[in-house]
């Protein structure tokens, strides 16, 4: 490996270390405790080094948000590919979304501003648009109405998201109900919305 490649790899490793350290701080202390100084202490660098990789805390949060959507997109696509029938695909996708919210709680909180201020994105991230498109395309497969209402896919997507995100938020910010009841509510809501797609 040449010196240029070695330097590039070291930079990538340092950048990854900064992001990993930020997530570890958040897992132990919460988003409000995160600071560039704490990250620098965790990776045993000076704060100015971190600013070589991220212009400010907002830039770091945007990168973590982007990574979160990339992970979520892969999980949703994998869930979709695990089923063949459109209705089952859509249900599997929303169940994967639910699982991501609790398995990657800190990422989800950042991405959707649950119990914290999320970073303000000046433009939508391609990774976020990808996850929305996966859901929209899956809903589109179930629409049989003719003539096709233009806004039905958007309406149904936001109906799904409002209900599921609401249930997730209740469970993340305060003690919700037990997991068995959550699963009943979740599956019942998904199946009920699927049944209304062509109403």
UniProtKB/TrEMBL annotation:
Residue ranges flagged as DNA-binding region: 35-54
Pfam family name, one: TetR_C_33
Domain HTH tetR-type: 12-72
Keywords attached to this entry: DNA-binding, Transcription, Transcription regulation
Coiled coil spans: none
Cited PANTHER family: HTH-TYPE TRANSCRIPTIONAL REGULATOR BETI (PTHR30055:SF234), HTH-TYPE TRANSCRIPTIONAL REGULATOR RUTR (PTHR30055)
Origin organism lineage: Bacteria, Pseudomonadati, Bacteroidota, Sphingobacteriia, Sphingobacteriales
Gene3D superfamilies xref list: Tetracycline Repressor, domain 2 (1.10.357.10)
InterPro entries: Homeodomain-like_sf (IPR009057), HTH-type_TetR-like_transc_reg (IPR050109), HTH_TetR (IPR001647), MT1864/Rv1816-like_C (IPR025996), Tet_transcr_reg_TetR-rel_C_sf (IPR036271)
Protein name in the entry: TetR/AcrR family transcriptional regulator
């Amino acid at each position: 490996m040449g010196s240029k490649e070695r330097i590039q790899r070291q930079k990538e490793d340092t950048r990854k270390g900064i992001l990993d350290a930020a997530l570890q701080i958040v897992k132990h202390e919460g988003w409000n405790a995160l600071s560039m100084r704490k990250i620098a202490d965790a990776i045993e660098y000076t704060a100015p080094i971190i600013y070589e990789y991220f212009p400010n805390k907002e830039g770091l949060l945007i990168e973590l948000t982007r990574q979160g959507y990339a992970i979520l997109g892969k999980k949703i696509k994998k869930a979709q590919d695990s089923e063949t029938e459109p209705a089952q695909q859509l249900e599997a996708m929303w169940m994967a979304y639910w699982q991501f919210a609790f398995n990657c709680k800190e990422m989800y909180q950042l991405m959707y501003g649950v119990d914290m201020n999320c970073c303000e994105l000046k433009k939508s991230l391609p990774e976020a648009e990808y996850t929305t498109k996966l859901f929209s395309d899956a809903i589109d497969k179930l629409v049989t109405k003719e003539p096709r209402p233009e806004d039905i896919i958007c309406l149904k997507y936001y109906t799904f998201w409002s209900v599921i995100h609401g249930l997730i938020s209740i469970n993340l910010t305060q003690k919700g109900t037990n997991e068995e009841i959550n699963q009943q509510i979740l599956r019942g809501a998904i199946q009920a919305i699927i049944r209304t797609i062509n109403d």
